[in-house]
């Protein structure tokens, strides 16, 4: 009997759920099975009370090389249908998730894989990782959110150039451009990501959920609308036990415990 490897590996440790894209021979190029199971796993992790932080990463030397160009399963759909069926729900699941999502970019992120690398709330890169808005090499336009994420990070003109020329952005430049928060050595990357994720998991989950909601809304809103939403969500945060715990811990000169409750 031929055993096939799952396209997605799932592991949970200390409140951190790690989702590992697992098609290493193809640099984790995405087929429908991978994309649909990733979306499902993201939704499940969001609903699971034991999960506080989600890490998205790749197995082997790649993060994700974008659409699997050899996979024809999406070809009975139009491009529009394919995006609406697979990539777009995934990007929406990441951005709409009530928990922090870390894009742990262990290797090359190309095409829609670059979009996944940018979609996380935190982007941690291995030294050897790289990002390529590679779509124009095959005469397509950037999708899966790249046209939305990239200009907000680097401005219109730099985004256009990276997309038009499909230049490879290496980790030192990615850090300089604001495409990632931290770069870690390849050798210790997994441990660094887990340590970072556990530190994030100790932060107040309800407050981070509301912060994510407010920030996502603010990306497309006016200052007036942002002020109104802050005032509304601050009430929700202030009514939560986490706030009491934070204030009490401050007064008692101890570290708050946001993991109880
Ligand atoms: C791959 C792939 C891959 C299959 C590496 N597919 N096998 C598009 C269409 C429809 C709707 C939705 O939206 C999209 C969005 C997109 O994502 S379009 C962009 C699609 N991706 C690409 O065009 C990237 C193609 N890959 C590459 O250009 C290179 O592999 C990069 C620059 C990523 C990495 O180069 P290297 O480090 O030199 O690795 P490699 O090319 O030797 O790849 C290793 C293996 O992985 C190789 O297989 P082999 O059997 O020869 O060892 C590649 O064929 C395979 N692979 N990407 N997307």
UniProtKB/TrEMBL annotation:
Pfam families given in the database record: ECH_1
Origin superkingdom: Bacteria
Matching CDD domains: crotonase-like (cd06558)
Cited Gene3D superfamilies: 2-enoyl-CoA Hydratase, Chain A, domain 1 (3.90.226.10), Lyase 2-enoyl-coa Hydratase, Chain A, domain 2 (1.10.12.10)
Family: Belongs to the enoyl-CoA hydratase/isomerase family.
PANTHER family: EG:BACN32G11.4 PROTEIN, ENOYL-COA HYDRATASE
Protein name as annotated: Enoyl-CoA hydratase
Provenance organism: Deinococcus malanensis
